[in-house]
Amino acid sequence: MESRDPDLPFSKLERCIHEPARLAVLSLLINSSEGLSYAELRERLGLTYGNLERHMKVLLENEIVTVEKVNSSGRSQSIACFSEIGRKSFLQYLDNLEKILLTAQGKYQEEKADKPNGLIGDTAPA
Question: CA separation (Å) from 102 to 20, 62, 78, 99?
């Protein structure tokens, strides 16, 4: 069996980031310099507390995010923020994903241009 080329962008995608719920969490955090509370993340993403906890545990174990407990209005809240390493990893992930999308789009554009009616997968009527 042939091994994958380690220089290809899809070979560099971080599994701990690529999962849809974690990608959604990180996509919200990237634009929040102050971080977001677990309550905000749950509400905006429609996740249960347990589901969010499970995904945050993976992000914490991989040092993508940090979590700080703060007291607000007499209640303790968990605030998630990017770690310095995590922010760099996520931006690299986005860069690799962009390369994958551009490669796929280029192939799509080539196939579209080759078809007389401009539709991929369609055959011209007989």
Answer: 20, 28, 37, 5
Task: Please check whether residue 96 is in contact with residue 10, taking contact to mean a CB–CB distance below 8 angstroms.
Answer: yes
Flag whether 40 is in a domain: yes
Q: Which pair of tokens denotes residue 79?
A: 């605030």
Tell me the one-letter amino acid at 12: K
52 Cβ neighbours under 8 A, 6+ residues apart: 21, 25, 38, 41, 42, 45
Would you report the helix, strand and coil content of the chain in percent, each value rounded to 5? 55, 15, 30
Q: Which two tokens stand for residue 16?
A: 């701990």
* Residue 35: pLDDT band with limits 50, 70, 90: very high
Number of separate domains in the chain: 1
Q: Token pair of 61, please?
A: 């174990």
Q: Which domain holds residue 30?
A: 13-114
- Tens digit of each residue's pLDDT (9 = 90 or more) over 42-53: 999 999 999 999
CATH of the domain at 28: 1.10.10.10
